[in-house]
């Protein structure tokens, strides 16, 4: 990844195309949840089988995503974005058209292999085109379209009732159509990027970079603090919000399923608007680490409010909403500032290897703690151990965010890196 300087209009076109590609990609990522019930009723899938359709997304990436990051540095973001968008499309088609469970698993596996590397390459595109300014704003914008994709999947039963009335397959064909749109946006970006590279005679600079194994772990301290925060923060937020929060709201706070789901979805909806706004703010003031630390500290506070107060669900949801918008809006632009441009892909790949393992591990630990304590509507106190576990992880993550701020994110350091 090398910073490049096309016209502003071209750079904004690239940003729009990358954001559109992410919308389709995140739509497909979340597309199993709304058809889970239909898959069980119509195809006889068990809970474990449905769970596996999502688990196979993460499992290979505990190893493969590092290779993906290296590929981005070696071959450039444009080729990798196009190639992985193609793999995601094949995966989405295989999932929707497979006559049997094994075929669907293969489809989700293929999608997972493509999607995480696609995520890295889209961040690399924006770091490349907006290195001088607006990097946090454009990454925030692209992520906000991604969150809108996730929100759209949750709303798809309301938006496409006829498709859902016909069974499990039409909704997955809609997801495949989203993957096709994502591929088309990636292809348009690749085509523009080729013209930009040719015009700017950057071809030689963007040719394959040799990969040196011994450089793999050679990053500064700031990068490692960021990696630890990434693992702990995403493990808590994704394991809690995507797996256990709805059940927790029902059993501990007495909400019904619809109200619990709605409460959960506000966090994603808030992120659609707040993520680019926070990114814009960071770019304007030229400060990143203090915002990151603030967002990271809000997570344990919101968990404490949620666990300790029976009536504070709105307050804790709002605090998590701010954290969920602020931390990603700052983390990825900051990563692009603390590592060399030609090692950005490898750096994010390494972060996501540990992140994928952390998210998987946090899901297992939280599930085990709930089972061990017999957590249920009749025994809401059984969720206490899980909340302690998430609370401790989020406090450690916040401590590393504060250490990052204190050691590498002071005003003079950040303003110097801006110049
Ligand atoms: C940019 C960041 N993405 C990740 O951390 C991915 N490893 C996992 C994304 C899963 C949903 N597609 C984010 O989305 O904040």
UniProtKB/TrEMBL annotation:
It catalyses: L-alpha-aminoacyl-L-histidine(out) = L-alpha-aminoacyl-L-histidine(in); L-arginyl-glycine(out) = L-arginyl-glycine(in); L-alpha-aminoacyl-L-lysine(out) = L-alpha-aminoacyl-L-lysine(in); L-alanyl-L-lysine(out) = L-alanyl-L-lysine(in). It is found in: Lysosome membrane. The keyword Membrane applies. Residues 14-409 form the Major facilitator superfamily (MFS) profile domain. Keywords: Lysosome, Membrane, Transmembrane, Transmembrane helix, Transport. It is a multi-pass membrane protein. Belongs to the major facilitator superfamily. Lysosomal dipeptide uniporter that selectively exports lysine, arginine or histidine-containing dipeptides with a net positive charge from the lysosome lumen into the cytosol. Could play a role in a specific type of protein O-glycosylation indirectly regulating macrophages migration and tissue invasion. Also essential for liver homeostasis. This is Lysosomal dipeptide transporter MFSD1.
